[in-house]
Amino acid sequence: MVAKRKTYFSAKEVADIWRRTKGRCHLCQRKRWRLEQRSRHGWHIDHVHPNVGGLAGTEQPDNFLVACAKCNLRKGRGYWHGEIRARLTRFMKEWGY
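-> structure tokens emitted (97 positions)
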């Protein structure tokens, strides 16, 4: 079963996520955000366990935390490049390269 990616958070869900993390980025642990600073350049709602492949449980409320936009986007690129590398390595091993 593939979990459908969550595309919308209600104001209550956003406030609950922010409150649960006390507005602090769970990645760098340095930056503390105000609730109203959620934006493209402020703070994001981040998946703790990435939704790569739509695994079950990745869209549950406890899998979302506050992350600085900068931290979240940097982390996202890392997963993407890592996933590409892993798939290419697997492909090359399977085909004897």
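The chain is about 35% helix and 10% strand.
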